[in-house]
Amino acid sequence: METAEPIQRLVRELSKLPGIGEKSAMRLAYHILRSSSENARALAQAVLDIKESIKLCSKCFQLTDTDPCRICSDASRDAGLICVVEQPPDVAALDKAGDYNGLFHVLHGVISPLDGIGPDELKIEELIGRAQQDEVKEIIIATNPTKEGESTAVYLADRLRDINVRVTRIAHGIPVGGEVEYTDSATLGMALGGRREM
């Protein structure tokens, strides 16, 4: 039995989303078809709204619908701390943890010569400009513990060396609830290297 063209078109569009194969797209399409017209309209409107109203914060480059974003506008946050992350979802993850009350800076990627991404493609110069402001006391580099994330962290630390600001790196190692016996050697090496006084 041949599938109706509108369903095929929706499946093709949904398949373009990351992590969504044709089977998942088909399930989603049929779910949308079974839902009310009101729910389908709300979904379509939400997609249109993010395309029309979301922009980059002019200070931290987080995705936002207000400029500056809500975090940069929050006077209760410590303006002396800037946590540098790779992508916008990293801001939400770190902020949700609840242990950090400073500001953020989103690079929008990492240095990756194999992918044609150099320092000029990232929001590094903007970070340097922010670091030179008097109120900034510490830059926390929170890039991922990948080869590219580590090389980006080293590059940032080198660029920030001549500025009167403390540069730190988040610790990496064994996750809470994890067991040493089942942890890979690279993670164990990072945990040992990042040890601290007690």
List the helices and strands and how they pair.
Layout (H helix, E strand, L loop, with lengths): L4 H11 L6 H13 L2 H17 L1 E2 L6 E2 L5 H4 L4 E8 L2 H10 L4 E5 L17 H8 L6 E4 L5 H14 L5 E4 L15 H9 L5
Note down, in words, how this protein is organized.
The structure is a single chain. With 198 residues, the chain is an alpha/beta fold. The chain has two domains: 5-53, RecR Domain 1 (Helicase, Ruva Protein, domain 3, Orthogonal Bundle), CATH 1.10.8.420; 68-173 and 189-193, Dna Topoisomerase Vi A Subunit, Chain: A, domain 2. Helix content is 43%, strand content 13%. It has eight helices and six strands; from the N terminus they run αααββαβαβαβαβα. Strands 4-3-5-6 form a four-stranded parallel beta sheet. A two-stranded antiparallel sheet has the order 1-2. A hairpin with a 6-residue loop joins strand 1 (55-56) and strand 2. Helix 1 packs across helix 2 (22-34). It is globular and about 65 Å long. It starts with a helix and ends in a 5-residue tail after the last helix. The relative contact order is 0.08. The mean pLDDT is 91.
